[in-house]
Amino acid sequence: MDTINVVYDSRMLLAQLEAFSEVARLGNVSRAADTLSVTQPALTARLQGLERELGVELFVRAPRGMTLTHAGPARPHGGADRSH
Question: What is the pTM of this model?
Fold first, then answer.
């Protein structure tokens, strides 16, 4: 992988994580898009890309907002749930 692709991948991952964080915090794609100064379709594409890369749905989508699925909540220190 060349340097340009690594930089692009890093920036895209950061954008996806910012999108995830704001939607999780606000529960609404439109408000999160406004907060991040991007369009709603761009934010939706970031979320879908992240979900596709991870292979899980992170949000339950409803007409009045979005909530996290069981896969969506962040774990302390970014680690997996080891309680099982």
Answer: 0.71
Helical spans, DSSP H, in the chain: 3-26, 29-36, 40-54
In a domain, 65, yes or no: yes
**42: domain CATH number?**
1.10.10.10
Contacts 24+ apart (CB under 8 A), 38-43: 43/19
Q: pLDDT by residue (tens digit) across 29-79?
A: 999 999 999 999 999 999 999 999 889 899 988 888 888 888 666 543 344
Q: Which residues contact 69 (CB under 8 A, 6 or more apart)?
A: 56, 57, 58, 59, 60
